[in-house]
Fold this protein.
Amino acid sequence: MLHARLTRTLRRPALTLLVPMLFLLTACGSGLSGKYADEMGIMEYEFDSDGTVYMNAMGTRVAGEYEIDDNNVIVHGPHGNLVFERKDDQLIGPMGLILSRRD
């Protein structure tokens, strides 16, 4: 009887902690992944699901990090931050920059 009561008592806190952790892990796993480029192929952004982004522009490749905030993708690079709006398979950036998903 004591063993059963102890098991139930220990199970409740575990479940109480497990459910929020699963939601948190699901939210963290919603990273962006894949290559996005402009129409002419001059600029290309390659996103890894771990939060790393590689930016290629006219033969120069630099690395940075990104984060997702709702429909915005915020890229932190060596030259500052850029904010893109995510719409379907496109990233809409400043000054009319449109990056489309490339596979």
Remarks:
- The chain is about 25% helix and 45% strand.
- The radius of gyration is 21 Å.
- The helical segments are 2-28.
- Strands lie at 34-37, 43-47, 52-57, 60-69, 72-77, 80-87, 90-92, 98-102.
